[in-house]
Batch of 3 targets.
Target 1
Amino acid sequence: MVSKPPAGDPVQDAPQVTPPQHAAAGLPAVGHTLRIAREQMGSVRTARTLLKVNQKDGFDCPGCAWPEGDRRHVAEFCENGAKAVAEEATLRRVTPAFFAAHPVAELAERSGYWLGQQGRITEPVLLPEGGDRYEPVTWERAFAIIAEELTALSSPDEALFYTSGRTSNEAAFLFQLFAREFGTNNLPDCSNMCHESSGSALTETIGVGKGSVSLEDLHRADLIIVAGQNPGTNHPRMLSALERAKAAGARIISVNPLPEAGLERFKNPQTAKGMLRGAALTDLFLQIRIGGDQALFRLLNKLVLETPGAVDEEFVREHTHGFEEFAAAAGEADWAETLAATGLSREEIGRALEMVLASERTIVCWAMGLTQHKHSVPTIREVVNLLLLRGNIGRPGAGVCPVRGHSNVQGDRTMGIFERPAPAFLDALDKEFGIVSPRHHGFDVVRSIQALRDGEAKVFFAMGGNFVGATPDTEVTEAAMRRARLTVHVSTKLNRSHAVTGRRALILPTLGRTDKDVQRGGRQFVTVEDSMGLVHASRGNLPPAGPHLLSEPAIVARMARAVLGADSATPWEEFEADYAAVRDRIARVVPGFEDFNARLAASPGGFALPHAPRDERRFPTKTGKANFTAAPVEYPRVPEGRLLLQTLRSHDQYNTTIYGLDDRYRGIRGGRRVVLVHPEDAEARGLADGAYVDLVSEWTDGTERRAPGFRVVRYPTARGCAAAYYPETNVLVPLESTADVSNTPASKSVVVRLEESPAPSA
Ligand SMILES: Nc1nc2c(c(=O)[nH]1)N[C@H]1C(S)=C(S)[C@@H](COP(=O)(O)OP(=O)(O)OC[C@H]3O[C@@H](n4cnc5c(=O)[nH]c(N)nc54)[C@H](O)[C@@H]3O)O[C@H]1N2
Ligand SMILES: Nc1nc2c(c(=O)[nH]1)N[C@H]1C(S)=C(S)[C@@H](COP(=O)(O)OP(=O)(O)OC[C@H]3O[C@@H](n4cnc5c(=O)[nH]c(N)nc54)[C@H](O)[C@@H]3O)O[C@H]1N2
Ligand SMILES: [Mo]
């Protein structure tokens, strides 16, 4: 299987390379932000929009899920948040004339970057059966087509309802309600590819699948371990929190195969001192081999157990279960194996241990570097073991901090976007709406692709996102999608998923976070939940991209009426007219949202959802205690001559949305087809810096996948490891290569060989 660089694209991929930087943000970031914003929005709209990001009366930044904090600066946004806003608030438009001029086959040849640059979609369009391009369609006809296809299915489980993580609480609640009234739990979401491993590990060990810390906790921690995360690019506002924690005396360990600029030094653009010198953040950098984290934490646990007085015995006795079995397993941890798995030295691990023992309040933060491996769930459980040993859950300044991705991915899950809903949630939903939700589990992302491939699923409906762009095994996934009878995308911007369609396809244009939303009941706002369980309102203030856009709640409500008709007793019209009516229902179904509307009115900054382990050291697990766990230590075994490839984000992208072709902190400009390789690994293969290679992934069943034409960049990554950008490398990730338990694609551990190839002709 081979992925081709898109042809017919005016953008040349010609990467230029300079040495990586050692500090993030500061002046270049501010200049870069304003330039991108003005290009997309013009000066007036730029000022008007950026001033409203993350303000109490403004909209939630559609960038990441990092919380805003109380002291909202006038400009509480970051470079990459501003890019996300500019991308959405752009003045460029994709109109029916655009679709008339560009057949779908041509769109399929374009790069994701080019597609995204065309602007906001303004009208609903239909690709008719046998047609070669999208045509304008009325909303009524679009919903009639959806109803026609859905009611023709032999079972509701032949339909898939995907959600990406920007969808508001209100839209998500309605979407899952519709799916369950229709009769299926097939609600795959981007979380399946993202923090599912965190949710799986945390639910089992502490009873709540979410992080247990607040911003205040970070500010007062003694030690913050940041493992498998690149906040300088992906959560830039987190750097301010780390800076503040450092100023209050915290120490920081970063665990990463790459030296990420943001973690080394942070130049806070909001302070004069920060702009000039910046703050050093990391005290100890552990340059770990990809996938070595479980072994590292297991050995640390053994060493803590062996240190007299290091275990918080009262906490372990009162609040935990499974200690004996865990201690026995940890006792087996082996130095030689750990050094091999991690590539670290004894001294480095010794220093990490000292810092762990010196800390009374430890927080571990992580993201995709821990969640996207075969053994991600046991890895995160091992992190929890360390925190439990020292009583670091439910203590101020301590806890688990999985740093979520999309701005409302956590809220979507809270609202019931889950293929394996808890029975209690369904009971409450059924009682409120007088429906009978299916109790059998639905399909997650990977299972959905398999279902399409095998003809078990026939209609695919996406509430946002870029399903075929974001999922693994591109060739397999695209072929699977093309088998669908109908594909529907509720979208703001064009992407690859609009070019890889079923027999018929619809694009339904929708309002984004920045857009003003007026319904029959007046001007509306929506709500979101951030990475730390704070719920707050988000209000767009820009005139929508065109008069034909519908909001996400309106689209769900109208679809529901078209599909369910008189069978549904749910007041869909009322919900569309006034989202407060939706919130009244959320208040009665979802624990923690009691008096939702009243509480929002009383606290404009938002309110925190309850979290039993954090608030009261109560652990709603099966044992009623926090669970220690003891899985065998795993780490990737890489055959001779091969490298372990991680697929990650550049500084100029938001997942599959490409803002530009630079990765400034890593010193790469003007191109994305690069592979970062340790100088000695390149040397051993006779590859000069600037050589071109094909990346060939080798899967255990003997199949190979190829991504051609990547420029080799000699880069200070851990030995034996390589890195290249997603989504260009998704073609290399086998559909069956997933994490145990969570079924998350193992996008951070792909065994590859490099085959020298001719430089692409310019
Ligand atoms: N600007 C911007 N912001 C974003 C996004 C974006 O694309 N652009 N995406 C959003 C989303 S949905 C998400 S989920 C988050 C993603 O945020 P991140 O998880 O920071 O994103 P990645 O680029 O995948 O980076 C993974 C990090 O883990 C490291 N890593 C890889 N493998 C390992 C390993 O085995 N062990 C350890 N210890 N480290 C490892 C990599 O070197 C890298 O630093 O960001 C969110 N915010
Ligand atoms: N190889 C590899 N693959 C990965 C990852 C990786 O690290 N490596 N990371 C995974 C992760 S963590 C994630 S979260 C997924 C992301 O998967 P997705 O969430 O599916 O992908 P995005 O690229 O974020 O989706 C972008 C599209 O969302 C639409 N959009 C933007 N805003 C809105 C809105 O407000 N409403 C609606 N309806 N649509 C909107 C636009 O049309 C835009 O083109 O990718 C995963 N895939
Ligand atoms: Mo994500």
Note: The pocket of MGD (ligand 1) is lined by residues 63-64, 80, 194, 227-230, 233-235, 255-258, 260, 288, 290-291, 293, 367-369, 405-406, 646, 648-649, 653-655, 748 (CB under 6 Å).
Target 2
Amino acid sequence: MTIEFSQRIRRIPSYPVAGGYAQDAPLVRLASNESPYPPLQEVREAILGALSTLNRYPDPSSSLLRRRLSERYGVPSSRIAVGNGSCDILLAAGEALLEPGAELVYAWPSFSVYPHLAAASGARAVTVALDGSERHDLEAMLREITVATRLVLVCNPNNPTSTAIPLADIAAFVAEVPAHVCVIVDEAYCEFNLLEDPDASIALLDARPNLVLLRTFSKVHGLCGLRVGFALCGSEELPRAFDQVRQPFFCNALAQAAAFESLAHQDAVIERVTRTVAERISVDERLRAVGVESAESQANFCWIHLGEDRDEAEIMRGLQERGVLVRAGGALGSDTPALRVTYGLPEENRRFLDALAELLAPAPTR
Ligand SMILES: *Cc1c(COP(=O)(O)O)cnc(C)c1O
């Protein structure tokens, strides 16, 4: 007898995981858009301070963290949702808004978690191709909105292509979306976007009760190992619904304490962004020198086009043999050979670039 699972289990795609977790050898880990910088000393102390009360459940409403988020972003705490990583909020939004017969619109290639939402709920996923510069085609996305649409996802900057669209375009887009359709702008990488002030989008919330700005402590704050993210919402109904579909204690006590402390160190955020942008400029320059094109990155990673005649799997293998872990574009929705590579420390980037240059030289073998 084989166990009989639900329809959803047959539908839900497995998240494409990064390799290398079982290896002990020092590896250059550029596969998951993590921060190369360890948590701040003050954040580590806050985590240690929270250890002694782990016999208690965490605050189920993350009150202190939500209050500090409210002070930092100027959004009432009743319009802020916290989650076990921002993916937790994304999946909760899918549960709260979608069902069979409903439709979900998002661009593709985009974040690999998005296909999960339709599969888990039985809603229909409507995907819209990126434009020629690998940016969201918001006009085409608007055309896909029907009476059945419940949720639209916009990833800005977009994972995996690293590109961003101007806020004015997003504002115009949101103004056209019917008010009963929820729009989630996934801003996991917004701090790295130099096109505008990362907080400029917050002003849109006041006039748009259906808008959600999704943010995370996983990237620039370097806390992905703890799992904590948040959503700034245009109305109170949204966080309430997201909480309704989740287990009561979705954000653990260490994560709450660490995120609370991390918000007090905005200077560190700025410093990390500055360092990452410096690496972005120098890596992109060297990529051009070895003869590959990368998209215009506004994130902490680049999206590299290897060229039609290259063998993506072979290059992935070659990099892995040289101790460098990156992501294969094919697993992330690219139909031409591509790599998604996180900007790491200068030395890590050097190791990646040296390995890539070696693998690409002197000429394509096929
Ligand atoms: C990394 C990432 C997130 C963050 O996920 P967490 O669950 O907060 O770690 C969200 N959206 C996108 C597009 C990402 O790349």
Note: Residues 33, 85-87, 111, 155, 159, 186, 188, 216, 218-219, 224, 229 surround pyridoxal-5'-phosphate (CB under 6 Å).
Target 3
Amino acid sequence: MAKWRIVYVLGLLQAMFGLCSNAQRIYGDPNYPFVRNATQAPPLLLDYDYIIIGGGTAGCPLAATLSQNFTVLLLERGGSPYSNPLVENLVGFYPNLQTNTPTSASQQFTSEDGVPNNRARVLGGGSAINAGFFTFADPQFVANAGWDVALVNASFAWVADEVAQFPTVGVFQGAARDALLEAGVTPYNGQTYEHVIGTKVGGSLFDSNGHRHTAADLLTYANPENIDVYLYATVQQLLFAESPTDVPGQQPQPRAIGVLYTDLEGNNHTALLSENPQSEVIVSAGALGSPQLLMLSGIGPTDHLDFFNISIVLDNPSVGSRMADNPTNSLWVLTNEAVEVSLIEVVGITSFGSYIEVSSGQTEALLGVLEGDTINFTTPTEYGDNKLNDRPVTAQVLQSRIVAAILETPSGPLRAQATWGGTILQKIWGPQSWGLLRLASLDAGDNPRVRFNYFQEEVDLDTCEQGIRLAMDAVEAPALSSLQYTNDSVPPLLTPVREAVLASWPPRDSSNVTQDSINIREWCLDSVTTIWHYHGGCLVGDVVDRDYRVMGVQALRVIDGSTFGQSPGTNPQATVMMLGRYMGVQILRERLGSEAGV
Ligand SMILES: Cc1cc2nc3c(=O)[nH]c(=O)nc-3n(C[C@H](O)[C@H](O)[C@H](O)COP(=O)(O)OP(=O)(O)OC[C@H]3O[C@@H](n4cnc5c(N)ncnc54)[C@H](O)[C@@H]3O)c2cc1C
Ligand SMILES: *[C@@H]1O[C@H](CO)[C@@H](O)[C@H](O)[C@H]1NC(C)=O
Ligand SMILES: *[C@@H]1O[C@H](CO)[C@@H](O)[C@H](O)[C@H]1NC(C)=O
Ligand SMILES: *[C@@H]1O[C@H](CO)[C@@H](O)[C@H](O)[C@H]1NC(C)=O
Ligand SMILES: *[C@@H]1O[C@H](CO)[C@@H](O)[C@H](O)[C@H]1NC(C)=O
Ligand SMILES: *[C@@H]1O[C@H](CO)[C@@H](O)[C@H](O)[C@H]1NC(C)=O
Ligand SMILES: *[C@@H]1O[C@H](CO)[C@@H](O)[C@H](O)[C@H]1NC(C)=O
Ligand SMILES: *[C@@H]1O[C@H](CO)[C@@H](O)[C@H](O)[C@H]1NC(C)=O
Ligand SMILES: *[C@@H]1O[C@H](CO)[C@@H](O)[C@H](O)[C@H]1NC(C)=O
């Protein structure tokens, strides 16, 4: 759409609806009176200091902070996390990932690598559908970002106080903790949010009753007088106008002035910033959503946008580039007794970039997750060669052997034993391999196409090999092996399952070091899964500057995991929430002075 036409349409809407910037409040959500359904939003909302797109892990703390002193509109395409049992309870974690309706909190996608994946579509974002593990960034990551360390620390504390606590570890997590220490992942650092080499118990969004906290809880710090939140509001496009720059002689730049969004009934709505030149649109739509929305709005690689007939606002080939997902490989362990149902609690942080994480009691979940078709890795696309090309097997093949064995056994007794096991998984640092994101359609509600090129760089395979050797050492260490299934300790029922579990481990060759290494590396490729820590697409330096302003346009920032060049810490969410708070305070300080936002 030509810019003059947008401005014209807006003028028309304004004339029709007047200054209807404040909809009648609908007190539908018991938790926050300012949260409403977008179908109830007027066609035009006006006069916001900030319009934030995506009420996710970064968007919620950012909106809460900015609303202290400015008016904020937060638009989230999903629904409320509150009173959604799949979101609120720990045991809902895997079943939730199986849902995929137009309004489910999890939206499934399969990357072009052929690896199944999930993304958030709910207020709270990833923090409302994730495994809850809560841990800070590596201090080196903070240093590289050039952030103000004191404000980073204060922002981590602000987030942690509201959403995180330490779990009480059960039998399996405790055994895995001891086994990691026996395997040499030392020292023991006890309970800590800090990223330190050794073995530790990290934080969790889940409390002792298995009840989840999310980033949406941070909206409790919002000023209710200054914030409007609309749910089921899918932003389709950012709106721009030409704007002269402050710099004499410089070409006018596009300036973000508002957004177009749709509700569940398919109706179009417009929201506009105030005329104050310091007003801004902030995109916090996540690593898939943010580069996708920039492209849909005309910011991205010209050739790709031309293909979709999208008018160019700014050519930037880096939008959607550097998409990465940390490869993850799991060792399944069958135990000789029922163990606690837990997500991630114990982690081992090595000095060589392998992070070993533990979960348990999920055999039931395995059944749910892995029933169904095996997905093959894809053939080459225009992105070129990929290490996973032409590999007909995936993690799903290995794991479906376990499922097949389980399904062969009578379901009654087996389901009673559904918590007889756990996983020791490895996520690798970085990663160094990366791919691309491209549009699949012109609808922002659709998934874009994304390819992560797992293990494309040899160094990622090196880390996988080294880390999996260590993880196997832990599985075979006394503390864990004493908990493992033996023929004597369990009814014969589980013997085929045990065999399938063992067959899902890397085939070893102790007589030939070269062959042994090949085996483990092949296994890393064949059994790769996601741990859902994908990031990139709007990197600092490529798409945004160090203040997260989109380079080449005005009044537009991107603040979320899409700006990361690597996944921070062992797990990213605490850093993403911290970034939302941190940038909220920084923006308040830019406008109100250094005392603001504390
Ligand atoms: C299944 C799963 C398990 C995980 N486990 C852990 C874990 O245990 N620990 C950990 O630290 N990390 C974990 N992660 C990763 C972590 O949750 C994410 O890295 C983090 O939540 C990303 O935050 P974000 O703000 O970048 O994006 P998100 O939190 O995804 O926020 C983006 C928001 O924008 C909305 N949105 C997108 N497009 C639009 C649009 N066009 N209009 C309106 N709204 C839009 C989305 O609905 C979403 O709510 C997990 C992630 C998943 C998916
Ligand atoms: C939001 O509005 C849509 C369309 O009117 C409706 O179908 C849906 O049930 C509403 N959702 C909630 C949670 O109110
Ligand atoms: C900003 O908001 C805070 C909290 O509401 C308030 O104490 C402070 O006075 C405000 N600052 C300005 C400059 O308005
Ligand atoms: C921030 O926290 C880290 C880790 O706890 C600590 O080492 C550092 O001294 C703190 N820095 C500041 C400036 O508070
Ligand atoms: C919303 O806007 C789009 C694009 O301008 C248009 O194609 C569509 O018909 C509109 N929808 C409704 C319900 O008016
Ligand atoms: C772009 O426009 C051309 C010419 O109108 C049309 O043939 C083509 O289908 C459009 N492409 C897309 C992806 O909509
Ligand atoms: C996956 O690949 C195998 C072997 O190449 C083939 O038999 C099978 O049909 C494929 N499955 C799907 C879902 O494409
Ligand atoms: C133990 O199980 C293995 C295979 O899992 C089987 O080969 C072996 O015979 C069993 N031993 C006993 C004593 O049952
Ligand atoms: C070890 O394995 C490699 C790779 O398969 C093979 O080339 C080599 O001949 C083997 N060495 C021995 C001594 O078997």
Note: Residues 28, 37, 39, 79, 232, 264-265 surround 2-acetamido-2-deoxy-beta-D-glucopyranose (ligand 2) (CB under 6 Å).
